[in-house]
Write a structure and sequence with these properties.
With 144 residues, the chain is mainly α. It is 85% helix and 0% strand. The longest helix is centred in the N-terminal third of the chain and has 39 residues. It has one domain: Serine Threonine Protein Phosphatase 5, Tetratricopeptide repeat (Alpha Horseshoe).
């Protein structure tokens, strides 16, 4: 009987953890979307605030770290950008946009070999044709 009870408790804890994880993702998504919109509007301060809020709600959100890293890159705050983009890649090693934006940081810092490696990784993981064109343009420019 104690084994059955222990299994039941473990199962309930797993179900609770999965439900909490899904809930965090759903609660963070509006802030990610708002951060993306604010980035497009060039309202970078508010974009950073939105992405930071999403990260606070869901610290496992690679998209939120990528979004905030993108804004930091635009603002030429490369150390902050690289920190966020590295975290994003740690959380989701297949996220093409994180590699792309990290490649842009490395390019801006004159780290050509690292930029090329990131753009190649982005190309390997990209399923987005418009991103693939951007990646190809960056690689062509760096190889000339």
């Amino acid at each position: 009987m104690p084994k059955l009870r222990a299994m039941l408790v473990r199962s309930l804890l797993i179900i609770f953890a999965v439900a909490m994880f899904a809930g965090c993702q759903q609660m963070a998504q509006p802030f990610i979307e708002s951060g993306n919109a604010k980035t497009t509007e060039k309202n970078y301060e508010q974009a950073v605030a939105d992405f930071s809020r999403a990260i606070k709600i869901d610290p496992g959100s690679a998209q939120a770290y990528t979004g905030r890293g993108r804004v930091y890159n635009i603002q030429k705050q490369y150390d902050l950008a690289l920190t966020d983009l590295n975290k994003s890649i740690e959380l989701d090693p297949n996220l093409a946009t994180a590699y792309y934006y990290r490649g842009l940081c490395h390019k801006a810092l004159g780290q050509t070999d690292k930029a090329i490696a990131d753009f190649q990784a982005a190309a390997n993981f990209s399923e987005d044709d418009s991103l693939a064109v951007l990646i190809a343009n960056e690689l062509t420019g760096l190889r000339q």
